[in-house]
Specification:
heme, 198 residues, alpha+beta, single chain, Cyt_P450_E_grp-I, 33% helix, iron ion binding, iron
């Protein structure tokens, strides 16, 4: 959110309309927070935690688009390539939650289900815990947006990182590179609410 303050503000405005400025979202609020869902979907698309699916081995010869895949061949799904396909996601390296909106300004209906989150896998080998992970990631993201403003550190004169690769450390698991930011409670009441929950 540090790099996308307009997205953060729009998401927070939606949260304030539904839960007020001093509350935390519940799972029951999810259907009334379509922009939060769009941000979540874009977060999961933009930089998946796992760039590749688990490996599989073919149990018999198969042909895919005229290419023979012999029995015993190691097959690895390339999640990264799927999620940056320009035919499906124009300007795929840019963070754009609006790509999940219709022209009428509503969340596309096919993007409201956990099955649309390809970061959890695809086909018969999809993550068995995807519903739990989906709910947990959505809830944490929505609560952070409801509770805090995430901004550049005061006095941080650094330019926005030009290359996406500079923002993340890629290996078996992808995670954010160290960065400075300022995280402040949105209101004194939300700070008190968070303090009491600990």
């Amino acid at each position: 959110m540090r790099e996308h303050p307009g997205v953060q503000r729009r998401a927070q405005d939606g949260l304030t309309r539904i839960i007020g400025a001093n509350g935390l979202p519940e799972f029951s609020d999810q259907a009334n927070l379509p922009y939060i869902q769009a941000v979540y979907l874009e977060v999961m698309r933009w930089i998946p935690v796992l760039l590749f699916s688990l490996t599989h081995t073919t149990t018999q010869d198969d042909v895919l688009q005229g290419l023979l895949i012999p029995k015993g061949c190691l097959v690895i799904g390339n999640t990264w390539a799927i999620l940056i396909n320009e035919d499906t996601y124009p300007d795929p390296r840019s963070f754009k939650p609006d790509r999940f909106w219709t022209l009428e300004g509503e969340l596309m209906s096919e993007n409201t289900d956990v099955r649309s989150v390809l970061a959890y896998g695809y086909g018969r080998r999809v993550c068995t815990s995807r519903h739990f992970a989906d709910a947990l990631v959505w809830k944490v993201m929505a609560c952070v947006l409801a509770s805090f403003d995430v901004e550049r550190s005061k006095g941080d004169e650094l330019e926005a990182l030009e290359q996406l690769e500079d923002m993340f450390i890629q290996g078996l698991i992808v995670y954010a590179a160290p960065f400075k930011c300022s995280i402040t409670p949105r209101t004194p009441a939300i700070a008190e609410l968070i303090y009491r929950q600990n």
